[in-house]
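Standup notes, structure subgroup. Blocker cleared on the nickel (II) ion input:
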Amino acid sequence: MEKDTKSCFTSAMQLEGGKNIPQRYILPPLQRPNINNNDFSSSSSSTTIIPVIDLSLLNDPLTRSQTINEIRSACDKLGIFQVINHGMPISVMEDALAISKEFFQLPSEEKMKFASGNVHDPVRYGTSMNHVRDNVFCWRDFLKHYANPISEWSHTWPLNPPGYRQKLGSYAKAVHLLQTQLMRGVIESLAGVKNADYLDDDIKQGSQLMVLNYYPSCPEPDLALGMQAHTDFGTMTILNRTEPGLEFMDVMTGTWHPVSSIQGGLVVLLGDQTEIMSNGKYKSLIHRATVNMERTRLSIASIHSLPIQKKVGPILDLVNSQHPIAYKEGSFGEFLDHISANSLGGTKYIDTLKIPR
Ligand code: OGA
Ligand code: NI
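Run returned:
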């Protein structure tokens, strides 16, 4: 009996078009978004232009070191940047978003075939973060599944809508390749790392979790969030989206900044595993997603990490008497165990790895 109430839920999409949001979506006042930021019709003065990195320059020996400097500066200051000229055709990016939208538009019974509260399941459809446990709900439905290598995972993906496996597959493959180049650049950018290629195999064979987010238009976007403040656990997240709505926190000032988007660009966010590997030199990005009254927003987050069981600690070249080791080793697999045992807003996995000074 309990199982039934746990496995069924009301999706955010089913609430679209209502006049008010249900109580369970209403955030405590201090966690509510500043919806002035949401005014994407004008170029709001609070919009932060995040660094734009031309990836074609990373692959040219003449401009590589300058590009590595740009990556270092972006990772040091903010932990977020955009890439352009990344080699992925716009059609691949757009097709992936369009087929994701088609998935969410399927009848509920079709999507519910993938409903699961077990974070270890290879494919999961759900709403909010964890509809059984969340204190305040996120105005969001999601589909999550693994992707690298495609041959190992794509048989688990939805067959409906037709073309899903092919289109998501092309996107996932391209974004994974991009990630290998970017992670290599991030590691090279860490001053003191002597041998930047020793992680190449782990990066190539790393885990890739595709997170498709569907944020319906929301009648009270000042009271709710599509996703509450969090960091992503992996090394980096590469985000492809249809509308503005992503915000990041500047930890120096504690202020939230909306991210403006460039046509064809992809947003790169540093995750906890990079913070750990860099021994705290780079910090993972605190971010959230706002919603808006007019439009549905879709995003695809590709969350990369080293292989799921691979224990990751600080790169030892970065540890010395001035910079003592600051994190214990952890893995993506242990992170999954942690989040299935702890609720959102409880202790973060990375905090359990921090070594007190
Ligand atoms: C995520 C995420 C932000 C967005 O999926 O982890 O932070 O803009 N998404 O959808
Ligand atoms: Ni995220």
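Discussed briefly. The CA atoms of residues 150 and 173 lie 7 Å apart.
Next: hand off to the docking folks.
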